[in-house]
Amino acid sequence: QVQLVESGGGLVQAGGSLRLSCTASGLTFSTYAMAWFRQAPGKEREFVSAIDRSGKATDYASSVKGRFTASRDNAKTALYLQMNSLKPEDTAVYYCAADIKGWSKLTRAYEYWGQGTQVTVSS
Question: Residue 95 is inside which H or E element, if any?
Fold first, then answer.
C-alpha cells in the first residue's frame, strides 16, 4: 500500500520560512517523479514544484520561483520543499504527489497523493 505523508506545515509570519517533508512508503521511491501542489480555500489545486527521479532536475510555478526549493533523498524515500520569503498568498494546504511516468504540472497526471499539510502565512 502506497503512502505519502506530509509534515512540516504550520503558522508563520510573512517573510519567514518553512520546510515541508513528504515521506513515502510502499513504492520504489527512486523510480517516481515527485511534485508539490497546493490548494487554497475556494481555489483549485495548483502546481508548485516538481522534481525528477534523480533529484537533478526541478521545475517551479512562476509564483514561487526563487523562493521555494524542492529536493529529495532517495535513500530516505523523502521529498522536501524549502519555502523562504513566505507571503500571505502562499497560505494553502500543501500536497505531495508521485507518479512513475514522470513529472507534470497537471494534477490528473499523478497517481498517488498525500493527505496534505496546512501552511498559513500571516501578514
Answer: strand 92-99
